[in-house]
Amino acid sequence: MDGKETFVGTVSLSGSGSTAIVVSIGEWHDDFIVTGWIDLSNMPSGAEVELCMEFNMVPNQPQPSRLCSSYKSPSDAAPLYIKPMMLPRHANMKITLSQTKGNGFDANYWIAIVVPDLGVKQWLMRRFA
């Protein structure tokens, strides 16, 4: 691997209608893989949240691509795994957590940005092309 940067912390949601930016990455120095987790174990009963990742797959994309998932407490209140995803250097990726229902809470997170070496990139291109 050519490099890795981790983002570790806690985001606070104040209740229904609140949004927190977990991590926001502008132009990166190379294509990268993003992965990690967000812990919803503090989510109160009756709360609902939406986890979204926004990114640009092509340069100057007018509207970013957006992947979102909704979770309800307490059944979905386990740590959420963010599956590894390869993104281009110009992705301008942002991960947000929005609360749509219920009382506020804090959520811990660990996000890793990994820049693979050339051999890994070539393998990924052949594997997923």
Explain what this protein looks like in three dimensions.
With 129 residues, the protein is mostly beta strands. The chain has one domain: Jelly Rolls (Sandwich). 9% of the residues lie in helices and 57% in strands. It is built from 1 helix and 8 strands; from the N terminus they run ββββββββα. The strands form 2 sheets. Strands 1-8-3-6 form a 4-stranded antiparallel sheet, with no helix packed on it. It is elongated, with a radius of gyration of 16 Å. The chain starts with a strand and ends with a helix. The model has no long low-confidence stretch (mean pLDDT 86).
Helix/strand/pairing class, anyone? mainly beta
Radius of gyration: 16 Å
CATH architecture: Sandwich
Strand content: over 45%
The CATH topology corresponds to Jelly Rolls
Percent of residues in helices: under 10%
Count of discrete alpha- or pi-helical segments spanning 4 or more residues: 1
What is the averaged pLDDT score?
A: 86
Number of domains: 1
* Amino- and carboxy-terminal Cα gap: 21 Å
What's the shape?
elongated
Task: Describe the sheet with the most strands.
Answer: 4 strands, antiparallel
Spatial order of the strands in the main sheet? 1-8-3-6
Low-confidence stretches: none
CATH superfamily: GOLD domain
Indicate the topology.
Blueprint: E1 3-15, E2 19-24, E3 32-39, E4 48-55, E5 65-72, E6 79-87, E7 94-101, E8 103-115, H1 118-128
Antiparallel strand pairs: 1-8, 2-7, 3-6, 3-8, 4-5, 4-7
